[in-house]
Amino acid sequence: RQGTVGPSAVAPRGEQLSFYRGSGPYPTPRALDAREIADIRRGFADAARRAAAAGFDGVEVHGANGYLLDQFLTDYLNQREDGYGGGVENRVRLAAEVVDEVLQAVGSEIAVGIRISQSKVSDFHHRWAGGIEEAETIFTTLARTGAHFLHTTEY
């Protein structure tokens, strides 16, 4: 399958950035199915395994700035009705599963962290709907994976 994918068939707010060779509104993505979500988790783990084999001393899972894992965290983009949608505990699930699989893939060989953000490069005003309580759930869930660091950014 080709094309833009996301947690749900909901286009991100804002405009594509010319810096990334985009223009105009974001396209409406196709919602990922369960098999594709499993493939994505494996893809992150495979990439980390290759980074470790190449001699890197750490990897950072990119879950910020409006990219795929961030879209799963974003309430208005994630309209799923399965274990990956709904409340924040479900919306953070994919990011936590990715970190878990990456940690399993590289063992204790290298440091593993995750980058997350509230705002998006396409939507500087977005904030987590649940405020501090939602942030606490996100950070606690990701910390419980055993990640070596959480890298938070505004955008």
TrEMBL record:
Pfam families: Oxidored_FMN
Family annotation (SUPFAM superfamilies): FMN-linked oxidoreductases (SSF51395)
Name of this protein: NADH:flavin oxidoreductase/NADH oxidase N-terminal domain-containing protein
Molecular function terms, GO-annotated: FMN binding; oxidoreductase activity
Domain NADH:flavin oxidoreductase/NADH oxidase N-terminal: 4-125
The species this protein was found in: Actinospica durhamensis
Region described as Disordered: spans on this chain: 1-22
